Amino acid sequence: MVVRVYRYPEDVSFACALLIAAQVTQKPDSVLGLATGSSPIGTYQQLVKWHQEGKLDFSQAISFNLDEYAGLPESNPNSYHSFMREQLFQSINMKASYLPNGNAKDMAEEGKRYDAQIKEKGGIDLQLLGIGRNGHIGFNEPAEDFAYGTSLVDLTPSTIDANKRFFEKEEDVPRKAISMGIGTIMEAKKIVLIAMGQDKAEAVLGAVQGKVSPGMPASILQMHPNAVILCDEAAAGLL
Ligand code: GLP
To answer: What is the distance between the terminal CA atoms of the chain, rounded to a whole angstrom?
Structure first.
């Protein structure tokens, strides 16, 4: 695992966008793994800018997102489908983009279908990750075991609390989500995790220097052969 520390959050976004741009430039038909949350917004803005300037073409690339809330219509402004459309897909020319279906009747089947679809497209070349305050990646919350494949998960009170800022009322925050599993994430050829701000410092410490344990899901990245963590000084404050 490589850790790179940048002074400001904008530097993290820029460095992350550069890695994604390099990936797509070197392999135009890349399979990208994408993330939601506030952390990747600056990265997506930079990618959109380069695309609009004619410097970056996604026409052969495809993407798979990490997760989606369960039971929220795709048209809901807080769904990850809406987030990705607004932040990225409507402004670039990605060949195809996939998210798990949070409204599938059978979530176990949907998880299997999603993992099979990723494999069929050749696997993820570069997976972008944010990190939850409790060390979750995707929606893999701290647990007793690592979940292998994409599945339905219960969100923890800490995640519901962190995500309520996007919803009108706390009761509106979905309690469940469908998320790529740790196994799905670890199969990506390259992983880039970004973390900004002091409230991520403990999670970054656990991810980088903690014991590898399902209680700190991001710690599994220590076992990945090609993982890089980009963080600002605030998020790296406890390292
Ligand atoms: C959600 C997402 C994660 C994301 C996390 C952190 O829980 N499912 O993929 O990493 O939020 O979000 P933020 O970047 O807003 O702190």
So the answer is: 14
